[in-house]
Amino acid sequence: MRPIPSRRLLATGVLAILAAACGGDKATGPATFTDPAATQADLQAIDTVFGTPAFQSFTAATNALNPLGVSALRLGPMLRALSPTVPQLLQGGAKLDADRVRMVRSVVSNLGGLSTTAIFPDSVLGVTFVYDTASDQYVESSRTGAPANGVRFILYGDSIYYNYPDAAVVEVGALDLIDLSTASTAKLKIVVAGVGGTPTYLDETISYSESATSASLSVSGYVTNGQSGANLRRLDFTVSVTAHSSATAGDATISVSYKLNVPAVTVSFTLTVKYDDNAGTYSLSLDLRFSRENESARITDLYSEGGTGSTETIKAYVNGHLYATGTATNGGDPTWTDASGEPLTVDNLATLTAIFEATIGAFTSIDDVLGPAETLFGFTIGF
């Protein structure tokens, strides 16, 4: 059983950007954060919705399950190819190397359609599973209340899933897996609720469809801390992955966004890879953003390659103002300039690094949302 992902705070990279952007070279003018401490605290707040005992147990319980009947496993290599990293952006940008193109091409050129069947066999529909500590696995029970078109797993304090000696068997909620599939789309609704059905900690729907020329994976829903009124913290999220192919060309796009209600924090990310074998051209476009009240940062990256070589332009923005631009040709390292076109100072470069780390680092929390979905549907994004 793989361990529960640790709660990775977002503020590590953000703190560096705040310290650098509020000091050092002031040539960028309004491209600074007005309240570094508040920005740091707001980004840390995203992790609070994942700390409830029910959500922790949900993660542990799904780690104990095998992938369900219909798998999006074939998308795994492509999704990993669409995951940007800080070193790629800093060391020559998000260069579209041969392996990245090959991964995308291998998936989109071999789409074959999807004929779905029921995710669960009829024999377990409406069944509630409880955890048997003697055999260290879930077993059927006589308990009622499970969805008629799905199954229910009772959730316990997460220590029982790791065979801790004398672990107390304490019920903390229930996980409902509801099959909403059609003939052409595999669709699973996941609900995690407290004991007795309230409050709702997680409500998400995973959908996957595939034809001979396209594929689509989506995950959408929300996570809460289970509280109400002014104490409610709710994170709404959407993930969309699409791929298209023809005889000689194809493209793949992944888009991720999530938004916390209090404090108001929004993070989004879109990356598209395209190739045309006839024209001998490839391109990659990237757009990452995070924002809070009166504060924002953004990174864009456009890379293209053809018969005459390659070009790349990377731009970093703070509070809507251009902070730095990097340009590269033919696979070389980017040359960085500030908003005035002057070479970046050492302080500028440190801030630029922090911008990249903060913006990309914000996506580590998406693993907390997608981890169980990846387990159940057999794919890995790997942020």
Q: If you had to describe this structure to a student in words, what would you say it looks like?
A:
The structure is a single chain. It is globular and about 70 Å long. The chain has one domain. The chain is built from eight helices and 15 strands. The chain is of the alpha+beta class. 39% of the residues are buried. It has helices spanning 11-21, 36-45, 53-63, 76-81, 86-90, 98-108, 346-361, 366-377, and strands at 128-132, 137-140, 150-156, 171-179, 185-193, 200-210, 214-224, 234-245, 249-260, 265-276, 281-292, 295-306, 309-318, 321-329, 335-338. It has a 15-stranded mixed sheet with strand order 2-1-3-4-5-6-7-8-9-10-11-12-13-14-15.
Number of domains: 1
What strand order characterises the main sheet?
2-1-3-4-5-6-7-8-9-10-11-12-13-14-15
Radius of gyration (Å)? 23 Å
DSSP strand (E) fraction? 35-45%
Q: What layout of secondary structure does this protein have?
A:
Layout: H1 11-21, H2 36-45, H3 53-63, H4 76-81, H5 86-90, H6 98-108, E1 128-132, E2 137-140, E3 150-156, E4 171-179, E5 185-193, E6 200-210, E7 214-224, E8 234-245, E9 249-260, E10 265-276, E11 281-292, E12 295-306, E13 309-318, E14 321-329, E15 335-338, H7 346-361, H8 366-377
Parallel strand pairs: 1-3
Antiparallel strand pairs: 1-2, 3-4, 4-5, 5-6, 6-7, 7-8, 8-9, 9-10, 10-11, 11-12, 12-13, 13-14, 14-15
Comma- or semicolon-separated keywords:
15 strands; disordered N terminus; 36% strand; 15-stranded mixed β-sheet; 383 residues; 21% helix; alpha+beta
